[in-house]
Every structure is written in structure tokens, then in C-alpha cells.
Amino acid sequence: MPRESVSAAIVVRVVVVLAATVVLTVIVAVLVADRASDNESEPDGALTQSSDTPEYIASNVVCPDGLPRLDPVSDPDAPTAALVPFVELAEVTTLAFLPAASAAPAVPAAPAAGFVGTRGGVVWAFTVPAGPAAPAVLSDTPALDLSADTSTEHDQGLVGMTVGPAGDWLYLNRTDASGDSVLSAHAIERAAPPAHPRLAAGVELLRVAQPSPQHNGGDIVFGPLGYLYVSFGDGGGLGDPAGHAQDLTTPLGAILRLAVDPAAPPAARAVAAPGNPYGAPDDDRIWVSGVRNPFAISYDAPGRRLWVADVGQQCLEEVNALRLAEGGADLGWNAFEGGRPFVGEPVRAHRAPDFEYSHGLGLCSTVGGHVYRGTKLPALAGRYVWADLCGGRVYALDLLDLPAAAGRPPVLDLGVQADTVVGVSAGPDGELYVLDLAYGVHRLVPPAPA
Predict the structure, then answer these.
(1) Could you tell me how far CA 37 lies from the centroid of its own chain?
(2) Strand (E) positions, 311-439?
């Protein structure tokens, strides 16, 4: 989350309605020093490093003039949207829907359903009643409670969640109490409506030791061939002092591409997918390298792109739309921050970002998003919709349909803002949802008529 140099807490008011008449105002302290760019100093729990190292120095320089700014277009006819409540739940970090085509033939008419997870490792099931903009109905009790074995320091917690292509497993990426990143799978039991889906205890697929509670990354998404993409940050510190992102022998600072089978023996549950670009002595699970804190990734099937939002260090945030043939790409960190040289020389050819924007003007940390493929907001069709944590506003841009000579794509400000936005998720129908750490999940809908 926000700048580690600003390690004071933001106090956010969350209104919780109890029964029908009692309203409590709960003060939730949200650290602004967890997922966004860090500069000037190290927060508590960060790696210890000398202030005279190149990485530390580069992390504290004044950003040069002329860096690209977000600069949304100013057009009264530009498309806008609105936010309506979908789930009221504090500390939300993840949302995943069951596939529209149920894997349970006995309940073909089951309503939309899925799971929503909190940073502390608690997962709730939900169903969605029929009707326009109907809010979700949460289960009375958690579908899964891993809070006793989930750490939430800095970038830690439940940071990634997705449902398998067949709708039979829920996959989680979280930080356990020891500080390791743990990828697990939990069998889903579908039930006839209005009952909620249920989860089994689960099996561990992958464990990655983390050197610090910073830059754990951790989003997960399935691609078109059924392989699981998993993002990991560089492990923390100013400027990646350990050089993880340029080291192909560690999963840190990389995106993995895995063949997963929760029913297999432990050693075979999460292995390198066929066609991955690297082999021994490198880590054959790596698909692309050179990322700092790829907080959010998403796959757009019509565009056949894996979208990677990577949180910058000092000056720039970046977005990459990777073709499936780009396995082996080096996104540059820490030799580059976005398109800007940072420290040293790149080990491999640098794959420049597709879009980047500088800090300032209330912007500090991309939380990523999805390409809009729904029908309710046709003006957004094919546009990447994302948000920045510090500003809280939701934006859209079109990278794929512009000719190469068109230059920098225009950015649309959709006219909506969440209090503490930490993500944008997509439903099975392509409609989008904004995750707000303070208030829960909002559905992105057309604005009310004037």
C-alpha cells in the first residue's frame, strides 16, 4: 500500500450497521506504508541496508523533470461511471467469482456466487440475487478462517485469490505466520440456491520464503491453457538491494507460470508449466522477470494479454500488457524503474512498459485492474480499468486498439473514487468491481441519469 516513507496511519471511518437500527462508527487504522512506492527511509520490519549503497541512493534522489504524467483527458463527453455497494466488509483485499457455467450440473440455475477475502485471511462466501445492481448476500459464517496463521505486516496478508477454470478449487496466495508466501488450494462444494458454496481445509501447493514483509506481491490468475500465473515482489528493501528481480534463480521479483494439480502428490502440485522459457540452473517456474512489486495481474482472454501492474520505487508506476509469446521478457527492475534507468545495467534486454505515470498530484501506487468486457458500460469496452491507491480514483485507457504511431494513449477519469482502493476485479460477465479496504466491494455501473 502507500508510501513507506509516510509510515503514519491513515484513520478511516467505517460505518457498520448492526441489526436494523444500531450504527457504530469504527475507526480502522490503515497503514499507508505497505504497498506503494517507498523512498527516503525504511519502515519498521524492512530490510536493514546501508545508506551509501547505489540502491538506497537511487531510491532517494529527486525525480527528474519531464516524466510522463497521468493527465486524464478533460472532455465533458468522456464516459463516466458510478459505484454502488456490493459487499460491506472491512479489510477486503480479494474477490473471486465462480464460473458462469457451473461445474455442478445438478444446480444449473445457481445464481452468481463466489468468495471475498480479507487481508487477515478470512474468506466469506457470497451469492448474488437476481435483479439490477443487487448487492451480494454473505454467508452467515466464514467459508474459511486462516487468520490464526496469516501475517498482515506491511505488504503481507491474503493478497491473491482466484477460482480454477472448472470452478472446483479456490486458490489463495497469502503470507503465513512465519512470513512465508503460501499458495494453497481449497475444494469448492457448490450447493443449491440459496445456500452458499463451501470450502474444504485445503492443501499447500507452493511455499516461498520472504526476506521481509515488504514487496511480497502475490496476485494469481489462470491463463487460457489452464496454467496459473503467480506474481512475487522483489522481497523488499529500497531499490532491491539483494538484486532478486534480475536473478533467475529465485522466484522473487518474477511472475511464475505453473501447472497446478491439488490432487497430485505434494512435489507435483505446482510445477513449471510446459513451454516456460528457463531451465536449470535457473528457476524453471519463472515466466517473466524484472518486477518490483507486481501487486495485481489479470488475464484478458479476447485481447490475449496478461496485464501486470507493477508498483514503482521512487518516481514511476507502470502497466504492462504481455502477449502470451513474451515468456522470458525482462521488465527491467532494478536496472530500470518503468522506462527510467535506475541502478546498474540490465542483465537481459529490457522490455519497456506499455504505460507509465509519475508520482505526485495525489498519485503513488497502481493497484492494477482489468480490461472491461461487460455490456453495461459500452464506452469502456476493451479499455483497461484501474486505480491508484493514494488518489482512490478509477481510470481507463485503451492500449491495444491504438495504432503504434498514435503516441501516448489518452486516460479517462471515470468520475468515481473509493476511500482506500486496493484492487479492481472482474465478474464472469465482464462487469467490474472496485475493492475498498475501508468499506468493502463496490460495483462499477453506469451513472444515474442527469
Answers:
(1) 15
(2) 316-323, 336-337, 340-341, 355-358, 366-371, 384-388, 393-397, 411-417, 421-426, 432-436
- Classify strands 336-337 and 340-341 as parallel, antiparallel or unpaired: antiparallel
Whether 21 maps to a domain, the answer reads: no
pTM above 0.85, yes or no: yes
C-alpha span between 70 and 382 (Å, rounded): 19
Is 2 a member of any domain?
no
What is the distance between the alpha carbons of residues 73 and 189, in angstroms, rounded to a whole number? 46
Residue 450 lies inside a defined structural domain of this protein: no
Name the grid cell of 94. 480479494
CA distance 147 to 168: 23
- Bridge partners (DSSP) of residue 417 are 393
**Which string of b and e fits 187-214 if b means at least 16 CB within 10 Å?**
bbebbeeeebbebeebeebbebebbbbb
- Predicted confidence (pLDDT) per residue in 178-230, tens digit: 999 999 999 999 887 778 999 998 999 999 999 999 999 889 999 999 999 99
CA angle 353/359/361 to nearest 5° reads 135
CB 297, CB 311: distance < 8 Å: no
d(CA 163, CA 116): 11
Residue 25 belongs to some domain of the structure = no
Residue 196 maps to which CATH number? Answer: 2.120.10.30
Domains in the chain: how many in total? Answer: 1
Q: Which of 437, 442, 333 is nearest to 34 (CA)?
A: 437
Helix %, strand %, coil % of the chain (to 5): 5, 40, 55
Q: Could you give the C-alpha distances from 255 to 31, 259, 346, 350, in angstroms and in order?
A: 26, 14, 18, 16
What region, left, alpha or beta, does residue 345 occupy, with left being phi > 0 and alpha being psi -120 to 50 degrees?
A: beta
Q: pLDDT (tens digit, 9 = 90+) per residue, 20-37?
A: 222 222 323 333 444 445
- Residue bearing the bigger pLDDT, 325 or 30: 325
Give the residue numbers spanning the domain of 192.
36-445
